[in-house]
């Protein structure tokens, strides 16, 4: 009986230590969520303005640009999977990988070869463990991405997009990430980055009017210097970088929200385990006391019977 009490007490101490770790990680994630949300919201005006500028240049000019022209036949597509560097985030990584695998399956059904690009250690380890080739991987900044990180990723993707298919180039680029909706809702999804699906000027005006945005009455008129093609050459790489940065920031906020929820659940489970082990330890202690009392009473009865027999 004494051995059982020691076992339960050791389990209680171990669970209490783990609970402290889980609680600390929960508080850290909670503090980082607000920073990630603030960064994502701060980047939105620039991304929206850049999107409007790219749409205006592409819709108001007759330039047949490589980044906005649909290819006649797509044989190879790049997929950028934006995942976390660390675990302890519940089903965050599993849901993201599941969405990426669904996209890879759909592209495979269309007869397209997939070139994988990954962000985060979890996505890289998943494909490496399964001997899936990765063209390029980036790690170490999933929780705090910067514009420089987005630029490096964008340069690698554009380089693959501009290369010939025979030299490892791609005709399409997709991005898989987790879109942050709220602290309790974050949805994995995929989007096509290139070629760009540019909205026509009339459609953009109608959409802006319906959304009630300011200045939605008409699209501004532009004069392109030195040429519309040169403007597109300068704008589109920045557009890609802004879209990647927006996805990185949204994924960062989603990762912290998932980690906070997972650590809150782990803390609650640790509390339940401590209560269970405490109850079992008390039960074992009561059983030990009962057994000792029974042995004492039995010994006294035996001595009394022996004395009466003498």
TrEMBL record:
Primary subcellular site in the record, as a coarse category: membrane
Keyword set, alphabetical order: ATP synthesis, Cell membrane, CF(1), Hydrogen ion transport, Ion transport, Membrane, Transport
Gene Ontology MF terms: ATP binding; proton-transporting ATP synthase activity, rotational mechanism
Cellular compartment(s): Cell membrane; Membrane
Top-level taxon in the UniProt lineage: Bacteria
UniProt entry tagged with the keyword Transport: yes
GO biological process, one term: proton motive force-driven plasma membrane ATP synthesis
Membrane topology (UniProt): Peripheral membrane protein
PANTHER family, sorted: ATP SYNTHASE GAMMA CHAIN, ATP SYNTHASE SUBUNIT GAMMA, MITOCHONDRIAL
Family, similarity comment: Belongs to the ATPase gamma chain family.
HAMAP family, alphabetized: ATP_synth_gamma_bact
UniProt name for this protein: ATP synthase gamma chain
Organism: Brevibacterium casei S18
